[in-house]
TrEMBL record:
This is VOC family protein. SUPFAM superfamilies: Glyoxalase/Bleomycin resistance protein/Dihydroxybiphenyl dioxygenase. Pfam families: Glyoxalase. PANTHER family: CONSERVED PROTEIN, GLYOXALASE-RELATED. The lineage of its organism: Bacteria, Pseudomonadati, Myxococcota, Polyangia, Nannocystales. Residues 11-126, 140-255 form the VOC domain. It comes from Nannocystis punicea.
């Protein structure tokens, strides 16, 4: 097991869940991924950190009073070395700042915003909390992508925000997917949403690595979750798009296929 100690600016570095049923969510995700949780911190809204082998994975907090009717979602945070400057670029690029940069004592600074095409995301300027310490192993995050109804607009926004090198995958029509790279390394992507997505709003998707997608998907349904799409094979592993019992959407992805000899 290795411990990750940092992320480049623009890379997704953290995710957290606003839980409708805080106790139930901790049981569900512990049963699915084997997470252990820190003691919730009352002065931070009972925020807690999920861990694998003592290493941080994601965060979770109960919904605040008045938020129970809001959707239960996973939020993705992009790393920045300067939240104030990044917020100015968000506004210049047509996004909307929801929560301006604020101090999380001893941890870092966070902000929250909508991109120019309507997907919500967070920013994280690290201090002692440098992001997820476990990454790309079973039970940890391994990939993130923004699902957008206005893909070209979203690409321009994020390119202006962090200078991503963007690589078109597929034909750009039937399958429109763009990989976001930093210094030649893929850190995320953008999927064009089609009519098949129904009324799901634009959003950032979190992928969690699992040892076996079908086994994990079956376990998820036993715990009360739902399979929304798949499992299906991809060049990067077998994928299932799922939700927890309270409607928070995320994806499971198995190991990447071994190259043929």
């Amino acid at each position: 097991m290795t411990q990750r100690t940092g992320y480049p600016d623009g890379a997704p570095c953290w995710a957290d869940l606003n839980a409708t049923d805080f106790d139930g969510a901790r049981r569900f995700y512990s049963g699915l991924f084997g997470w252990a949780f820190d003691e919730p911190v009352a002065e931070f809204g009972h925020y807690t950190t999920a861990r694998l082998g003592g290493r941080s994975v994601v965060g979770m907090a109960p919904k605040m009073p008045g938020q129970q009717d809001m959707p239960t979602v996973w939020s993705v945070y992009l790393k920045t070395s300067d939240a104030d400057a990044t917020v100015r670029r968000i506004e210049d690029g047509g996004g909307k700042v929801l929560v301006p940069p604020m101090e999380i004592p001893g941890q870092g600074r966070m902000a929250f915003a909508f991109d120019s095409a309507g997907a919500a995301f967070g920013l994280w300027e690290p201090a002692s909390h440098t992001g997820a310490q476990a990454f790309d192993e079973p039970g940890a995050m391994c990939w993130h992508e923004v699902n957008s109804r206005e893909g070209t607009k979203a690409d321009a926004f994020y390119r202006g925000l962090f200078g991503y090198e963007q690589q078109q995958m597929g034909d750009g029509e039937k399958f429109d997917y763009v990989v976001y790279n930093l210094e030649g390394k893929a850190v995320g992507g953008r999927m064009q949403m089609t009519a098949e997505w129904g009324d799901i709003p634009p959003h950032w998707m979190v992928y969690f690595r699992v040892a076996d997608t079908d086994t994990s998907a079956a376990r998820l349904t036993e715990l009360g979750g739902k399979i929304l799409h798949g499992p299906f094979d991809s060049p990067h592993g077998r994928i299932a798009v799922v939700s927890d019992p309270w409607g928070a959407i995320f994806s499971l992805v198995g190991p990447e296929p071994t190259a043929a000899a």
